[in-house]
Design a protein that fits this description.
By secondary structure, this protein is of the alpha/beta class. It contains 38 helices and 40 strands. The protein has an eight-stranded parallel β-sheet with strand order 26-25-27-24-28-29-23-30, with helices on both faces. A six-stranded mixed β-sheet has the order 3-4-5-6-7-8, sandwiched between helices. Helix 12 packs across helix 14. It is globular and about 85 Å long. 43% of the residues are buried.
């Protein structure tokens, strides 16, 4: 930033800082006015800049050989002159312009390179235009780098009158990365507009520095810290989050002193009572230090099972462990493992360092670490691995999964360590056992209490990341040694903390030992991996397959074979996160588990005696507002005892007073005598239990892999066509031609294509309201009519039922009879069908008895069904993992994938490599939004979305290929709530502070708008009516906000109101949709930004609307730094909604 004559001249870097934190700009201005001083630039920073210039010069030499007509713009002349020379060079048609200087009013910047392209023509230059290339010495490309090249691309679009289609970054590894400019432009323009607006009224802006995620990276953090210290500001209380701070501030509690002395009750503050007691106690301690100047630590009495109760008995072989990782897109690159342990009676430090920034380099040191662990625990079977915070345990799990193909032993050894609870997180124990006068519980803050003093040059983790980046670029030993010294001190400090906790553990608390119940749990784990000694183990099979694949690998098939290697063992790996979370939850308190969406936490039993029914007992609980995925019929798994106690019978959501009923079946002994009712805990958390075993999925997948090894996959051509992304093989059809004429009758053409499939794979992509279920039903009836055996599957019983209902209805309409069977779960209720039978066990189903078979993947992968079907239809294929698709496809000659990867997807839980990370549709579309004309069928006409809504959905998600059916013109509403019109999308801005999962301000606005819409007129064809509650859908990202809105509406409307999260409404529609995004800003988000800003979730939410979609959100959500480039793309898509902004109140 420059300040001349009270005018600001800004750069993309200034914009990045503003987006990260507004107060950064305030500090910059104070600096330019001489009010504060900036720290001297570090020697490392200067060196980094020099390396960057060297990297840039190297690539100029490379590029200048390729682009002979090149020019370098001088850097030592006036900015306007540099800009004019850049414009002249562009006009003169230079192929390469080095140090191009760009100006857009008070916005300016220097692009490393502009390179001429003839892909896009410019109205200014004729048959060419320019694209931006920039170099970065870092290998860790970040959103700020993308924002920079987007800024340059935007500025050259002003000159050449057309936006560059692409832009490029060349990283420190000399790898060129390509980006679509349009995927980042909207968020850049919004941020720039807000920045300029902010600067224009900077003197009037009253901004107070708040803690945010940018603090640890900010040059001005010390200045803000001085302000907080001076004001004794509330955000200095250790363990508080932004939502809590804002709730306190709303009640005029703005200082630590005020919090320590407040008489307000937690109910008034809307903070959980236990949480409030903790933060108030913390405030009292910190206030005491402020007044006395003395640091203090106190021992607190933890709940039974927490804190000191988690300390194992010390052992001679205990290891103290720390990992250093380098950020990447998918997961960190773990480049250093440090261990501190006793060897021959003396403690020593040992480390493993990755000498290469490659997968092999990471794998080599992981192997060394695992081999050390294996040998060490043979010698010291009662030892444990101590670490501080969950990073190490999570990292080892991910490493074991990522490298399981080449090093399955790592997976096995780590499984045993995790099962035997060898990892001990001292942060969890400390946070539940001690409280201090310090601002946080980092090792650096609490080391004073166990008298540990650091000597290493590096003091913070983010500096170690910077040092590793420096080492990668220079290979200088000093950088490496500084990081190793830092890691060693972390390991020793972890040891010292463990010793402190041991010395202060209350004598009445025993060492952690596995009790009888724990041993049973251990047995459960063994059952989970029950071995048949007559068969090869899972690990042996996986190793054998991978070795065979390695032998047939060559230059032609290398990529294909490597991806098959990644798929081997998929189902076991993908179950692991769920399995280990069962064990992780045991260490968490009921309050901590409220943030776990796989749980309904903090449930309080209402009556000691349950209600008795004919076949069981009903226990009634109350639970606080929270987000959860459990639903009626889910298993009721007690997370702390790790036992199934029954199933969820009822969930009744009622703001701050939710009801949960648990059904426990009656049980009898061998003589038929009834056992007494079970005794459930008075306070309990129910969560997701052990994942189901999937051996038949793995067997089916391995069957295909074996066939590929032996016969190049000839027995499973449809799978090979899918994995090769081949065009469908269709009889009497020219390969490579468009499968259908989009202007013709798509259904009849789709039937013809499907009937002529020749042992191949066909994709049918159906955006919202395009009738994919209707089309599928029509195709399936015709195939059955032709004597084909057809199987139908999906990711859920509900989706299968929906498709089967459509098939039966179509059969009835055509007066056609067939015989079908549906495999349902043993606990499910049977349904009355016309042509279909429900069976609860697969053994009851014979292959020769039916024409249509339906069931989830567990049914389809039955080995009896190998190549048994003529067609397998997988509905909602975007929610089915590629590996599971392969497993199921072994049952059929032809494979038909139906779905839409742009709607809700099934998250793949584990960290997989290659193809294994994708669903079948994500894999086939290969980062494209729509299926190409020659590869599949795109249902391009929606009967739901009117033209205005369709235009946004089509442009944003479907490559502008989706159009509205003429029937949508016959539907209308008359809302009369200006400025919101009677059709289209409308963004309603709202301002609030500190809202996370609940916003009363947005709930008030939704209620007010809902009331205005009710009883307004609608028209469908010639039929008129009044809008009722069933015609309006209200969507929120969180259950807490959905409950908040529902309770308000239920006070006025007797009938059911349609309010819920988007997961509840996929496949449904309404005349009007109201969307409350709830959260105040990114810092208040309870979950990751990729969930909140998900393209898929936004698509589903808006595309529920037939006539009007009203989306309410705080614009501050869009003024935030993205954590990754992918997050930045998601936020950019959200920014497009600003084009629909209204002034509706």
């Amino acid at each position: 930033m420059k300040l001349k004559n009270n005018k600001f001249f800004i750069s993309p870097s200034d914009l990045n800082n503003f987006v990260a934190c507004k107060y950064t700009t305030k500090n910059e201005i104070k600096f330019h006015k001489g009010e504060i001083r900036k720290n001297n630039e570090a020697v490392d920073s200067k060196l980094w800049k020099r390396m960057g210039l060297k990297h840039e010069a190297k690539h100029f030499n490379i590029l200048s050989k390729k682009y002979k007509k090149n020019i370098s713009i001088p850097q030592d002349i006036d900015e306007k002159e540099r800009f004019n020379l850049t414009i002249k060079a562009m006009k003169d048609g230079y192929d390469l312009i080095y140090h191009a200087f760009l100006i857009d009013e008070n916005f300016r910047g220097e692009s490393d390179f502009l390179i001429k392209t003839k892909e896009i023509k410019s109205n200014v230059y004729g048959d060419y235009s320019y694209e931006v290339y920039d170099t970065k010495i870092s290998r860790n490309l970040r959103p700020r780098h993308i924002n920079q090249i987007t800024a340059y691309s935007f500025m050259i679009s002003k000159i050449q009158k057309i936006l560059p289609k692409k832009m490029y970054l060349i990283d420190g590894s000399d790898i060129e990365h390509e980006y679509k400019t349009s995927e980042y432009l909207d968020i850049f323009k919004h941020s720039k507009s807000e920045f300029i607006k902010y600067l224009s009224k900077i003197e009037k802006e009253k901004v107070y520095p708040e803690k945010c995620s940018f603090c640890k990276l900010c040059d001005w953090h010390d200045e803000c810290e001085k302000i907080w210290e001076k004001d004794n500001y509330i955000n200095l209380v250790a363990g508080t989050n932004k939502s809590q701070i804002e709730k306190l501030k709303k009640n005029n509690i703005k200082t630590i002193e005020q919090l320590s002395k407040t008489k307000l009750l937690p109910t008034k503050l809307k903070i959980n009572a236990e949480t409030f007691e903790r933060i108030k106690s913390q405030a009292e301690l910190q206030e005491e230090k402020r007044l006395t100047g003395k640091s203090k630590i106190i021992i607190i009495n933890p709940e039974v099972g927490n804190g000191f109760y988690k300390l194992p008995k010390p052992d001679e072989g205990d290891i103290f462990f720390d990992i250093e990782g380098f950020p990447r897109m998918d997961r960190p690159f773990e480049y250093l493992h440090g261990l501190y342990f006793k060897d021959k009676g003396k403690y020593k430090f040992k480390y493993f360092w990755a000498n290469d920034f490659t997968k092999i380099g990471e794998e080599e040191i992981f192997k060394e670490l695992i081999n050390l662990f294996e040998n060490h625990f043979v010698k010291y079977p009662n030892a444990h691995i101590y670490h501080y915070a969950p990073y190490e345990k999570r990292a080892i799990r991910e490493l074991a999964s990522a490298h399981s193909t080449n090093f399955p032993k790592g997976d096995i050894i780590n499984d045993n360590l995790l099962r035997n609870e060898k990892y001990v997180d001292l942060f969890t124990i400390a946070s539940q056992s001690i409280r201090t006068t310090e601002k946080d519980l980092s090792l650096k803050s609490i080391e004073q209490f166990y008298d540990f003093k650091r000597k290493a040059d590096i003091t913070k983790a983010d500096i170690s990341v910077e040092m590793y980046d420096n080492w990668l670029a220079t290979k200088k030993d000093k950088y490496k040694q500084d990081i190793i010294n830092y890691n060693e001190e972390d390991c020793i400090s972890t040891f010292k903390l463990r010793e402190y906790l041991i010395n202060n553990k209350p004598k009445n608390i025993e060492w952690l030992e596995k009790n009888i119940e724990d041993k049973k749990d251990s047995d459960v784990s063994k059952k989970y991996r029950k071995k048949d000694t007559t068969k090869k183990s899972r690990e042996e099979i996986d190793i054998e397959l991978n070795n065979k694949l390695e032998k047939i690998k060559n230059k032609t098939n290398k990529s294909f074979v490597e991806n098959l290697q990644h798929l081997v063992g998929f189902h076991w790996r993908d179950n692991k996160p769920d399995l280990w979370e069962v064990f992780d939850r045991v260490d968490k308190t009921h309050i901590e588990l409220e943030d776990d969406t796989e749980c309904i936490a903090n449930c309080v039993l209402q009556l000691n005696k349950p209600k008795e029914t004919n076949d069981g007992y009903l226990f009634k609980f109350k639970f606080p507002d929270q987000n959860y995925k459990l639903k009626k019929g889910s298993s009721a798994f007690d997370v702390h005892s790790k036992k199934d106690v029954g199933k969820i019978h009822l969930i009744h959501e009622n703001l701050d007073n939710n009801i949960l009923e648990i059904f426990c079946p009656k049980k009898k002994d061998r003589r038929g005598n009834l056992y007494p009712p079970p005794q459930l805990q008075s306070l309990i958390t129910f969560g997701k239990g052990y994942p189901p075993r999937t051996p038949q999925h793995a067997d089916a997948l391995n069957k295909f892999v074996t066939d590929y090894i032996d016969k190049k996959g000839k027995n499973y051509k449809s799978i090979m066509d899918m994995l090769n992304r081949s065009n469908p093989d269709i009889k009497d059809f020219k390969n490579g031609s468009d499968l259908i004429n989009q202007d013709g009758d798509i259904v009849s053409q789709s039937i013809k294509i499907a009937k002529n499939l020749d042992n191949t794979c066909l994709t049918i992509q159906g955006p919202p309201g395009t009738g994919k279920t209707f089309t599928s039903a029509k195709i399936i009836i015709e195939l059955i009519r032709d004597g084909k055996k057809v199987a139908v599957t999906s990711n859920s019983h509900e989706a299968i039922k929906t498709l089967l209902i459509a098939i039966e209805n179509e059969a009835i309409n055509q007066n056609f009879n067939f015989k079908g069977v549906r495999k349902i779960s043993s606990k499910a209720s049977e349904r009355e069908w016309n042509f279909i039978e429900d069976k609860k066990t697969g053994r009851e189903i014979n292959l020769d008895d039916y024409q249509l078979y339906a069931g989830t993947s567990w049914f389809i992968v039955d080995p009896r069904f190998n190549k048994a079907f003529d067609y397998l239809f997988i509905d909602e294929a975007g929610q089915v993992a590629l590996a599971t698709t392969i497993s199921m496809a072994t049952s059929s000659k032809n494979l038909v994938l139906i779905g839409d990867q742009m709607q809700l997807s099934q998250p793949i839980r584990a960290k997989h490599e290659g193809y294994a990370r994708k669903s079948s549709l994500d894999f086939i579309l290969d980062k494209k939004d729509t299926i190409s004309h020659e590869k599949g069928i795109f249902l391009n006409i929606t009967r739901r979305l009117n033209e205005k809504i369709c235009d946004y959905i089509s442009t944003s998600f479907y490559d502008s290929r989706l159009t509205s059916d003429k029937i949508t013109k016959t539907r209308s509403v008359k809302l009369n709530i200006e400025p919101i019109k009677n059709e289209g999308i409308f963004y309603v801005p709202i301002d609030h502070i500190g809202c996370s999962q609940r916003s009363d301000e947005e709930a008030d606005l939704v209620e007010k708008t809902f009331n205005k819409i009710i009883n307004k007129e609608f028209k469908v064809g010639e039929k008129k009516g009044k809008i009722s509650t069933k015609d309006i859908m209200v969507v929120a990202p969180y259950n807490a906000q959905a409950n908040n809105i529902r309770e308000r509406l239920k006070k006025k409307y007797d009938e059911d109101v349609r309010v819920g999260t988007i997961d509840l409404f996929q496949g449904q529609e309404a005349k009007v949709v109201l969307i409350s995004m709830t959260t105040s800003d990114v810092e208040s988000l309870p979950r990751h930004k990729d969930f909140f800003f998900s393209r898929n979730r936004l698509n589903v939410a808006i595309s529920r609307a037939e006539n009007v979609a009203i989306i309410i959100f705080n614009e501050k959500l869009l003024l935030a730094s993205a954590n990754s480039i992918e997050e930045m793309k998601l936020m950019n898509n959200f920014c497009k909604l600003l084009n629909f902004k209204t002034n509706y109140k």
